[in-house]
Amino acid sequence: MPQPVTAPISAHERYPTGTVLLSNALTFLTWTFGAYIIWTALGIAFSLLFIAYCLLIELNLLRRSCVSCYYYGKTCFSGRGRCCSALFKRGNAGDFAGRDITWVDMLPDILVSVIPITCGIGVMIVDFSWLVLALLLALVGLTTMGNALVRGRLACKYCRQRTLGCPAERLFQKREGRE
Ligand code: SF4
Hints:
By secondary structure, the chain is an all-alpha fold. Helix content is about 70%, strand content about 0%. The protein has helices at about 15-40, 45-65, 80-85, 95-100, 105-125, 130-155, 160-165, 165-175. The relative contact order is 0.18. Bound molecules: iron/sulfur cluster. Iron/sulfur cluster binds near residues 65, 71, 76, 81 and 84.
């Protein structure tokens, strides 16, 4: 059984509104830039499919993770804890800490960036566009630096669920050889 991490003094009971807004802005821009790039590469139908895919990923996160998270019904870094309590019944809190995830489990989330980035590179090769290039670079920036800022500096560092046990935290620790 993984050892709980000692509680950082400043774990948030309720995350600041600024963090919630920034986290959702990151998600909104990633989806919007991604949808536009796919629209340019493959047409509106695939772009709408991509947005539906992103919404399904969100719903799955709420249904599978947020229901048993410490922030269920509370304001977590993204506000999903509150959304979840409006849509789903509370799950078993122990399920969250006890669950193990692999990179295969993370793949659907990773594809939210990889699919449009791949399409964007395709557009660059077939029919170069300065606008798509700008959106592609912005998307790479959001996926890398944006996530590092929101997750690394504003979310996980102050997360009470992380101290109780978090499968994503353990997976990243494994990757960094810290476990
Ligand atoms: S911290 Fe993560 S798992 Fe917990 S409610 Fe927020 S988004 Fe869901």
